[in-house]
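User: Hi! I have a protein structure encoded as tokens and I'd like to know what sequence might fold into it. I'm fairly new to this, so please keep things simple.
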């Protein structure tokens, strides 16, 4: 079994029974979509494996040590680049800005190009999910999130787009740019 094949099986088991926040679809569809997006940019099996595994630590209680032992140090490091310190003893809405600033700093400092590809896959998958709801409900869509302020969401996604500008020749980045411009067109 390849590292990517093993990541698919591992992620499916880790996310078993989980659903996305705003709809009843199986959670595993999100990392699968992120992996497909990454696959339009790279065929590197470690990047694709990390895309499948990117939420296992943050949302499924998997430990980095387990990922490193099973998938190697690079895959674990790629997953770490996408994993926030959730500060579980504090309300998520209170820590949102700090968590995002820390994550953006990790993205800005990344030396492995796989980090940027992984981020693009994840964030584009997120915006694809948000966009249809936003078209129906406008900024009311943010009420389902820890950060309800559209201006804060705009800051975050615009900053991601800018940090990923090195991938602007990919259709994935162009699609991300479209969603950021469309969703946040009227947000200062």
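Assistant: Happy to help. Inverse folding works backwards from shape to sequence: for each of the 188 positions I chose a residue that suits the local structure. Here it is:
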């Amino acid at each position: 079994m390849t590292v990517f094949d093993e990541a698919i099986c591992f992620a499916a088991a880790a996310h078993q029974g989980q659903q996305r926040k705003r709809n009843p679809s199986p959670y595993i569809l999100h990392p699968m979509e992120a992996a497909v997006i990454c696959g339009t940019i790279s065929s590197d099996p470690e990047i694709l494996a990390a895309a499948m595994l990117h939420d296992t630590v943050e949302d499924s209680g998997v430990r980095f040590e387990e990922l490193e032992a099973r998938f190697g140090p690079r895959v674990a490091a790629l997953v770490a680049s996408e994993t926030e310190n959730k500060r579980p003893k504090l309300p998520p809405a209170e820590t949102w800005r700090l968590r995002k600033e820390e994550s953006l700093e990790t993205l800005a400092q990344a030396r492995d190009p796989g980090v940027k590809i992984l981020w693009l896959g994840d964030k584009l998958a997120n915006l694809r999910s948000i966009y249809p709801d936003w078209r129906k409900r406008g900024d009311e869509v943010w009420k389902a999130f820890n950060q309800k302020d559209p201006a804060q969401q705009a800051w975050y996604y615009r900053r991601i787009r800018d940090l990923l500008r090195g991938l602007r020749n990919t259709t994935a980045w162009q699609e991300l740019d479209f969603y950021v411009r469309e969703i946040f067109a009227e947000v200062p």
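A useful reference point when you look it over: The mean pLDDT is 95. Feel free to ask if any position seems puzzling.
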